[in-house]
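To the wet lab folks,

You asked to see what we're planning to order before we commit. Fair enough. Below is the target structure as tokens, and below that is the sequence we designed to fit it. If anything looks off to you, flag it before the synthesis order goes out.
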């Protein structure tokens, strides 16, 4: 397969064409130093067979930092830690590139406590703080931060260097006419706008030698009116080739104005970045790297075979499964925990100041769990009621540890709430985790019983060592006068296709489920309104996913009422607003999306007849939360049995 063929970038030989793209983890110290946690995270990806690991973004100056625990390369004291990180990755068989960057106007002033800098005083919309335009006399100072960082990477033993020229960061801010309004020799014409970055490249080559491989990451288009566009990127790529750059890593967008495209979140066009990479590849003779939601070996192979790129870069897919390459090359691609580009467990958690992880892989950040160890006393009989994600992960983990596991599910398929969750537009890849469990559960000996609703009496007859209640939650039905008489559907019923909504729909609840149901129904041409009690809808959505869904709903004319409570259903919908009561037209269908509540009834019944020490409640049956919590809870229980 093309994926496994060796390739050279510059004078650096790679064993295959898989690159680990940089993804910030938040595993460094607050000062930017390497930690054992960070080392183990990358070592597992190296052991998984990646040809080239591009380390996460290392900031070249304190003023260029984005998150509190970001990897740093701004001081000579970083070199030893970087060497401790790089060496074991090389020993595990991967080549390593250090990736250097200054965020410019995208830096987080709450983290840096320093003024923002940029070529011109134009604020990033997502930051909202106006940067200081770099005075002409300080240009060399800021260029030198990159040069010194490159020398540190070289001294730390890196095999290559990658420099960020894209994504709206500092060098890109010079490149783009949208952010560069300078009137000196670093602004204006194309030649002037690329000067800042070109001089950095020249100085780095002087310091570490022309033969050291340098990869440049570019945005082929930033998708901003009057900004950096494909024709600019092609001109730049040709110049970079003439400069002796070893490879070009092609991405898209600006983290300020087009962050959803940059991060390739759900709702963006899958494959768009590969097509732009293909356009760049046709214009240069050095290797081109494609990136963006390449979450299966088949997709990676297709990109390489079709000639769109010479290498493929996987960021979040290697977060989700560090053994991606190993499984792909050993005929086990169906066993890959596929990234769904949801951001919920990784970037959304990191952005919220919580721990970086993965929705679907609970071992991220707990690298010792990559290989599940056998239990000291295997052979327990473990019965799990419910085949949602919490139950499935508990079953897999317990069986992998050597226990005999039985799952009972009252529906005819596994997956629980992720199945209706995968129905709204752009959410179909969430089903990948269900396909994963279908593949791996039989291989670890799990016995699956579908269409089987168990009773307390039946459970009492099992010769069970452990009984796990993963029975999920039930939709909340608020006590609204007239609601039951008029009739309603739940969002889950609608998304599962169990019941059909009419042409005019009122959705009660504007959280993630409500908004995604509105997206689903409005795409079908139905007239939809959303009634939300709080002052903001989609509060539990990731920022970029929310931006995209709100844009789609606005285009389809979905009416959204916030700070509005449905008070009564009669000849109209009587609602209470800050301005007082008013009536909204009666719809054909009312859909409830006000959340779920745990259903402990079966557990409570069984706890009266069996010892509580052998009973366990996990997932939504315990507390309604997100996918990341359900799977993690399943894993933790499986490890404890």
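Sequence we intend to order:
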């Amino acid at each position: 397969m093309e994926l496994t063929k060796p390739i050279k970038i510059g004078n650096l030989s790679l064993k295959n064409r898989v690159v680990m793209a940089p993804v910030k983890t938040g595993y460094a110290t607050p000062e930017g130093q390497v930690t054992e946690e960070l080392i183990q995270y990358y070592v597992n990806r190296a052991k998984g067979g990646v040809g080239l690991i591009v380390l996460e973004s290392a900031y070249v100056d304190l003023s260029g930092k984005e998150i509190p625990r970001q990897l740093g390369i701004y001081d000579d004291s970083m070199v030893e830690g970087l060497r401790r990180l790089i060496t074991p990755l090389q020993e595990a068989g991967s080549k390593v590139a250090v990736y250097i960057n200054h965020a410019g106007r995208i830096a987080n002033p709450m983290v840096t406590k320093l003024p923002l800098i940029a070529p011109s005083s134009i604020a990033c919309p997502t930051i909202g703080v106006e940067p200081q335009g770099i005075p002409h006399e300080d240009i060399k100072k800021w260029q030198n931060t990159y040069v010194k960082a490159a020398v540190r990477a070289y001294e730390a033993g890196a095999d290559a260097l990658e420099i960020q020229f894209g994504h709206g960061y500092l060098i890109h801010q010079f490149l783009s006419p949208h952010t560069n309004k300078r009137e000196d020799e670093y602004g204006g014409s194309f030649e002037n706008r690329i000067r800042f970055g070109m001089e950095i490249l020249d100085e780095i080559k002087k310091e570490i030698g022309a033969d050291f491989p340098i990869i440049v990451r570019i945005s082929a288009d930033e998708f901003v009116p009057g900004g950096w566009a494909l024709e600019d990127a092609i001109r730049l790529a040709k110049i970079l080739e003439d400069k002796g750059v070893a490879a070009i890593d092609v991405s898209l967008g600006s983290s300020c104005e087009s962050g959803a495209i940059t991060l390739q979140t759900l709702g963006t066009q899958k494959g768009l970045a590969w097509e732009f990479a293909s356009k760049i590849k046709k214009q240069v003779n050095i290797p081109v790297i494609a990136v963006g939601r390449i979450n299966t070996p088949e997709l990676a192979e297709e990109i390489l075979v079709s000639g769109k790129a010479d290498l493929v870069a996987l960021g979040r897919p290697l977060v989700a499964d560090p053994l991606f390459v190993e499984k792909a090359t050993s005929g086990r691609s169906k066993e890959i925990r596929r990234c769904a580009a949801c951001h919920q467990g990784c970037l959304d958690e990191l952005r919220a100041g919580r721990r970086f992880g993965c929705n679907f892989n609970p071992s991220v950040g707990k690298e010792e769990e990559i290989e599940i160890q056998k239990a000291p006393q295997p052979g327990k009989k473990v019965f799990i009621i419910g085949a949602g994600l919490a139950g499935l992960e508990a079953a897999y983990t317990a069986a992998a540890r050597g226990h005999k596991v039985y799952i009972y599910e009252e529906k005819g398929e596994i997956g629980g709430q992720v199945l209706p969750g995968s129905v709204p537009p752009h959410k179909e890849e969430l089903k990948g985790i269900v396909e994963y469990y279908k593949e791996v559960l039989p291989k670890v000996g799990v016995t699956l019983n579908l269409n089987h609703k168990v009773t307390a009496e039946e459970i009492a007859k099992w010769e069970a060592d452990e009984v796990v209640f993963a029975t999920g939650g039930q939709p909340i039905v608020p006590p609204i006068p007239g609601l039951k008489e008029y009739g309603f559907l739940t969002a889950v019923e609608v998304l599962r296709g169990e019941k059909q909504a009419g042409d005019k729909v009122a959705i009660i609840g504007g959280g993630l489920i409500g908004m995604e149901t509105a997206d689903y129904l409005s795409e079908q041409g139905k007239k939809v309104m959303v009634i939300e009690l709080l002052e903001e809808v989609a509060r539990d959505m990731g920022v970029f996913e929310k931006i995209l869904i709100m844009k789609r709903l606005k285009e389809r004319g979905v009416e959204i009422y916030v700070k509005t409570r449905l008070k009564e259903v009669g000849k109209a919908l009587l609602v209470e607003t800050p301005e007082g009561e008013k009536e909204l037209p009666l719809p054909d269908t009312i859909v409830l999306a006000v959340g779920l509540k745990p259903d402990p009834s079966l557990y409570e019944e069984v706890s009266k007849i069996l010892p509580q020490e052998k009973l366990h409640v996990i997932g939504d049956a315990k507390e309604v939360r997100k996918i990341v919590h359900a799977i993690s809870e399943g894993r933790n229980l499986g490890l404890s049995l």
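Structural context that might help your review: The chain has three domains: 2-265+272-327, 372-475+597-640, 483-594. The mean pLDDT is 96.

Thanks,
Computational group
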